[in-house]
């Protein structure tokens, strides 16, 4: 079954990669150890490149902070105690972020049709983006498991499932370029 026409595969690959970079990969609600002596009730939206944290009961601007994965990691290291169990989850988030950065770079080459750079890639760029998105999804799924088991919070890995689906769709795209050219053989 073909889900996408071959001539639109590259556009779809770019679109799905950019969506993966913009959609939050998880949404959390619960009590979190932020400092060594204080737990706060928070809502956290984790996007691939940043996390937005809102403290309930505080004005929206005063209770909102935007942190990078490194800042989240440093925060739980500073909190110490049982919060240290979250560090591998943030490490996996950083791995997923690095893989996604590569995918975004490839998608930019594809979008701007930089043929010289794309010709140097030994595989089909659409399939490469599919594999990279699956890699991102696996890393963030690992982060989800670690953070879910180490936090007393409701945890919804929304974007991880989207990235898994996006990767599968791009790997299953029927590319006519991959098939031998029947017209060339006939001539």
Features:
alpha+beta; 5-stranded antiparallel sheet; elongated
Radius of gyration based on Cα positions: 20 Å
Kindly, what is the distance between the CA atoms of the first and last residues, rounded to a whole number of angstroms? 30 Å
- What is the tally of helical segments? 7
* Percent of residues in β-strands: 15-25%
Quick one: overall form? elongated
Number of domains: 1
| Helix and strand sequence | HEEEEHHHHEHH
Secondary-structure-based class equals alpha+beta
Task: Give a written overview of the molecule.
- It is a single chain.
- The radius of gyration is 20 Å and the shape is elongated.
- About 4% of the residues have low confidence.
- The chain has one domain.
- Helix 1 packs antiparallel against helix 6.
- It has 187 residues and is of the alpha+beta class.
- Strand 3 and strand 4 form a beta hairpin.
- The chain has a 5-stranded antiparallel β-sheet.
- It is built from 7 helices and 5 strands, in the order αββββααααβαα.
Quick structural gist:
The chain is α+β, with helices and mostly antiparallel strands and 187 residues long. It is 53% helix and 18% strand.
Helix and strand topology:
Blueprint: H1 9-22, E1 26-35, E2 38-46, E3 51-55, E4 64-67, H2 69-79, H3 87-111, H4 115-119, H5 125-150, E5 152-156, H6 158-171, H7 182-186
Helix pairs in contact: 1-3, 1-5, 1-6, 2-3, 3-5, 5-6
């Amino acid at each position: 079954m073909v889900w996408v026409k071959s001539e639109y595969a590259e556009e779809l690959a770019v679109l799905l990669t950019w969506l993966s970079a913009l959609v939050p990969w998880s949404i959390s609600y619960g009590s979190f150890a932020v400092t060594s002596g204080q737990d706060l009730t928070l809502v956290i939206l984790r996007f691939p490149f940043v996390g937005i944290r809102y403290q309930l009961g505080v004005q929206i601007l005063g209770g909102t902070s935007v942190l990078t994965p490194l800042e989240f990691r440093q925060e739980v290291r500073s909190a110490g105690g049982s919060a240290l169990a979250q560090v591998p989850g943030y490490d996996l988030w950083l791995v997923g972020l690095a893989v996604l950065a590569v995918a975004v770079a490839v998608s930019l080459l594809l979008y701007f049709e930089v043929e010289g750079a794309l010709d140097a890639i030994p595989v089909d760029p659409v399939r490469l983006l599919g594999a990279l998105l699956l890699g991102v999804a696996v890393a963030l799924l690992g982060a989800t498991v670690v953070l879910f088991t180490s936090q007393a919070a409701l945890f919804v890995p929304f974007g991880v499932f989207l990235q898994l689906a996006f990767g599968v769709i791009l790997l299953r795209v029927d590319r006519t370029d991959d098939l031998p050219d029947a017209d060339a053989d006939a001539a």
